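Researcher: Please generate the 3D structure of the following complex. Treat every line as part of one assembly.
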Amino acid sequence: MINFYPGPSRVDENIPAYVQAAYDKGILSINHRSDAFMKMCAKTVGLLKDRLNIPESYTIFFTSSATECWEIIAQSIIDTNSYHFYSGAFGEKWFDYTKKINPYAIGYQFDQEQELKTGELDLSSETGLICITQNETSNGTQISNARIGKLRKKYPNHLIGVDATSSMAGAALNFSNADIWYASVQKCFGLPAGLGIMVCSPNAIAKAQELKKGNHYNSLTFMIDKMRDYQTSYTPNVMGIYLLMRVMESRKEILKVEKKLKKRFKAYAELVDDASEDYTWLIENEDVRSNTVLVIKGDPDKVQELKEKAAQEGIILGNGYGANKVDSFRIANFPAIKKDEVKTLKKFLRKNL
Ligand SMILES: *Cc1c(COP(=O)(O)O)cnc(C)c1O
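Model: Done. Output below.
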């Protein structure tokens, strides 16, 4: 089966060989305080910075998932105020989760057809964390680098946190526009689930140091101390880090990856634009459509039929998410998906949309 689910999604084709190599080299049972681990961790951090164009001054942490990053941010970086701008289910979940930990979290929902409006934000306090979801996996929208840049300019004293779970390693993100970025590896990294990546600016680190919150095993202050030696505060997903290192070693730099995905997106988009009247984009506004997660809308019965037919032909289409669970389907446009697999899907869509 070819998996086009937007997470967990198709893993890099070399994963079986890398797992075997990890076993053969004894990586699967190395001690996380050993030199071998620290070297591997340092190398992985270096590769991430190089391939994804992350500023040298930023610190990279390993977590267990994007969800854990919600918790770490709420417990370690948010002093009192956080402002959550969202148009879809993941941004809303981040807000809801944060509110349970910090009662002063404020949510602003915006129309999924609209770009994030930086001019109209009403931020009642002088500081705090602005939270946005760069790529909203539920509705297939994205916030451009330019918009995040504007946000940065308008609010130089706030920290900006970005959920980039379904775009990091697939889109060329301008990391210097924000302070905290995070993702899970089962999306654009093409790895099995169970590892999260959190990228923090010097200002985010300074904030955590200033707040000195240390009540949790994954308090950022502990993570910062440990990461100075390329270690983690608990026994991490060593195999996941090894696989990440191997996958990043053979990945091209992000601009090239993005170019490939944009080209594929365009080809899919033409098929959706030419589709019968039964199917249309969930999002009409081209300017906010995601390049890495496509959401296509249709009558629930037709969508169900289409998914079944695809399955018979060895293609897994992603279900819709949340409010659009039954009246849409999703296609992951992630780097690990192979050229001939894209071709197979395009052929199917050309015939059936
Ligand atoms: C998948 C996803 C998450 C959750 O990732 P986990 O690895 O399950 O924690 C969060 N935000 C977005 C935008 C996602 O796509």
